[in-house]
C-alpha cells in the first residue's frame, strides 16, 4: 500500500498543499443485511417466513451467536424473542449490558422446519454471512450459545459439556462458549455455570 506520508510529501513537492482523502465506505451491516434478506442459497428460503439477520449494536463489544431462528423468531424476523430469548436477556443483564450494547445473531438466518438441527449444507451456505458480520463488527469477544455455533465457527464436532466455559480464540478474537438458553430451560441445574460464564465475560470487558 502506498505510504500516506510519502504520498503527501510527493504532492507538496508538486506544489499541492492540501489534499482531501476520499473515504471509501467499507462493508456495513446494513449493506450485508440487504443481501442476506434475499438469500436463496439453501432450501430454507422456501419454508421461512422471515430472514432473521440479527440485531444490536454495529459497535458491539460482544457478539452472541445462537443456532437458528425458532418459530417466534421466524414470525417476527428478530433473534431470540421467544422463551429462550427472555433467558438470554437475563444472561446479558448479568454482564451489566442490554441488547442495545451487544449484537445477537445465529449460525442460520432462516428457521429449519420444526426447529430441527441445522443440516451441514445449510450451515455451510450461511457461514459466510456470519463471518461477514463478525468481520464488520470486529467485537472484542464472541460468545457462542450451544454446540452448533461453536462447532460451525471452529470446524469441530465437540460436545457442549466439554467446551463450555473454556476460553479459546477465533481469528484472534477471544471466544467463550456457553450453553444455549433453550438447553438451560430444559436443564436448570446448569444455570449456575452459565452465570459463571457471564461473570467471566464481564471481567474480560
Ligand atoms: N434459538 C436460537 O438459536 N436462536 C434464536 O434466535 C432463537 C432460538
Q: What is the compact description of this entry?
A:
The protein has one domain: Uracil-DNA Glycosylase, subunit E (3-Layer(aba) Sandwich), CATH 3.40.470.10.
Overview of this structure, please?
The chain has 205 residues and is an alpha/beta fold. It has a single domain (4-204), classed as Uracil-DNA glycosylase-like domain (Uracil-DNA Glycosylase, subunit E, 3-Layer(aba) Sandwich), CATH 3.40.470. Helix content is 44%, strand content 12%. The chain is built from ten helices and six strands. It has helices at 4-13, 29-37, 44-47, 71-76, 83-94, 120-137, 147-154, 160-163, 181-186, 191-204; strands at 55-56, 62-66, 103-106, 141-145, 168-170, 173-178. It has a six-stranded mixed beta sheet with strand order 1-3-2-4-6-5, with helices on both faces. Strand 5 and strand 6 form a beta hairpin. It is globular. The structure holds uracil (URA). Uracil binds at residues 66-70, 73, 79-80, 84, 106, 182.
Keywords, separated by commas or semicolons:
single chain; 205 residues; alpha/beta; Uracil-DNA Glycosylase, subunit E; 6-stranded mixed β-sheet; 10 helices; 44% helix; globular; binds uracil
Topology:
Blueprint: H1 4-13, H2 29-37, H3 44-47, E1 55-56, E2 62-66, H4 71-76, H5 83-94, E3 103-106, H6 120-137, E4 141-145, H7 147-154, H8 160-163, E5 168-170, E6 173-178, H9 181-186, H10 191-204
Parallel strand pairs: 2-3, 2-4, 4-6
Antiparallel strand pairs: 1-3, 5-6
This protein binds uracil.
